[in-house]
């Protein structure tokens, strides 16, 4: 809770020692991280067929002192999920010896002093930033915070995203919609399926980059921006896009870049009309408010002032974190 590099090291040792390595993810209702999420992370970290990840969710005693039949209860539960004979039990906790004896296996302590991987789930929950190198890629999105830049055309989103990401020694998540337009649409014949494809494509790129990034990620547009583009080009917003955009706001702070900057035609832009650009800014704000997202305005035409305001919002995400010295894996 959560899976970390120590768990993966233990599983890797087990796989090197035996033919079939099973990881049993045990969860109950009172835990701070849901079991299905932890099991999904472990499956992403330890893919088949090299590993078998099983998820057991049930409220059973968590320590011998909790119930006089603690060991019989756990023997039965393990046998239910893994009826085949078990040869080895791998783990860093002291109970690995008793557990192995209870199920007729041999214990294999792995890094019990936490010297190879000096971290614990408790330490990560308390301070994920300073333990970031021990947080596996599939788990990182749970703790990351994204600063997302949205705005009308020609407001400097891409340039500002690259500037902010450089502070983090990282790369920003860039807009997928421009690439999609250049390849498939060339500014014409849009339909709802195009915008759904853009949302899904952007998320695929974003999640992949985030898994390689630090605690803070800079994102150039996201599903909210795509939602307003759909409204602008289709004249309506399909309900499926609204649902996707609403689901995309978790863990994000938005910077809305206003349209005070001059419009420049780069070959893929649509709306030079100032009134249309103002409409785009207004709709972004309205949708963000409708979804109760956290957002801040970046106003004025001066590039230095915009950059300073955006940097201030980045600083405000977590002033005590590794942000100010940069974070890179």
Share of helix, binned = 40-55%
CATH architecture type of the largest domain: 3-Layer(aba) Sandwich
Please count the beta strands (DSSP E, at least 2 residues each): 8
Radius of gyration using CA atoms only: 24 Å
The best one-word shape is: elongated
Low-confidence stretches: 321-329
Number of helices: 13
Element order: H for helix, E for strand: HEHEHEHEHHEHHHEHHEHEH
The CATH superfamily label of the largest domain reads: P-loop containing nucleotide triphosphate hydrolases
What is the average per-residue confidence, as pLDDT, rounded to a whole number?
90
- Taking the alpha carbons of the first and last residues, their distance comes to 21 Å
CATH fold naming of the largest domain: Rossmann fold
CATH top-level class of the largest domain: Alpha Beta
How many separate domains? 2
Structural class: alpha/beta
For the largest beta-sheet, the strand count, sense and barrel status come to:
4 strands, parallel
Beta-strand percentage? 5-15%
Give an overview of the whole structure.
The protein folds into two domains: 126 residues, Rossmann fold; 182 residues, P-loop containing nucleotide triphosphate hydrolases (Rossmann fold, 3-Layer(aba) Sandwich), CATH 3.40.50. The strands form three sheets. The protein has a four-stranded parallel beta sheet with strand order 6-5-7-8, sandwiched between helices. α9 runs antiparallel to α10 and α9 runs parallel beside α11. It is elongated. It has 13 helices and eight strands. The longest helix has 19 residues. It is α/β, with parallel strands linked by helices and 329 residues long.
